[in-house]
Amino acid sequence: MRDIGPAMSPFNAFLFLQGLETLHLRMEKHHNNALKVATYLSSHPKVSWVNYSGFEDHPTHELAKKYLDGGFGAIVGFGVKGGYEAGRTFIDNVKLLSLLANIGDAKSLVIHPASTTHQRLNPEEQLAAGVTPEFVRLSIGIEGLEPYSLDSDNREDFRRTYHGFVSWAYQIFIT
Fold it and tell me: DSSP letter string over 3-72?
């Protein structure tokens, strides 16, 4: 142990292998869900910009196509119109996503870096790190989005019947 570092227990190795066997299925679901959420956000009137490598106009789209093999991952960044306070308000009102800095979870996660993970940096340091005041980062999970549409016209029916990944964007931006 001293010469080669820590080793997994047999049970942890078993769990790791179990997860690895379904990784390709989970990544496909992460990608499909993230693309739907990014597409929805890109046309939302309260969103100023969307950063998702699956969009053809993204600066790293070609690299993502080359290296990510059939998908573009689960990370979606976007800017809430209204700056820092709008970002904070958004985060303070999210009820269905977990407010965590993690990525890659089976459940969808959200964070407002300017008021959480990067709050101790001054504004110049935040900008140097790529954190703008309105930036919200999502790590989209594998929750089911079908058969309901993120832009459902029937608000009450949507709320009443959709008990999976109830659209946080619908919940926050429309109500």
Answer: TT-----HHHHHHHHHHHHTHHHHHHHHHHHHHHHHHHHHT-TTEEEEE-TTSTTSTTHHHHHHHSSS--
pLDDT value for 173: 47
Kindly state which CATH superfamily the domain 23-174 is placed in.
Answer: Aspartate Aminotransferase, domain 1 (3.90.1150.10)
Residue listed under structure tokens 């977990």: 98
- Alpha helices (runs of H) in 52-175, residue ranges in sequence order: 61-67, 83-93, 123-128, 155-161, 168-174
Model confidence pLDDT, tens digit, residues 130-175: 999 999 999 998 887 654 444 444 444 444 433 333 444 445 444 4
pTM of the model: 0.77
Name residue 50's beta-bridge partners. 78
* Helical packing angle, 23-42 and 10-21, nearest 10°: 50
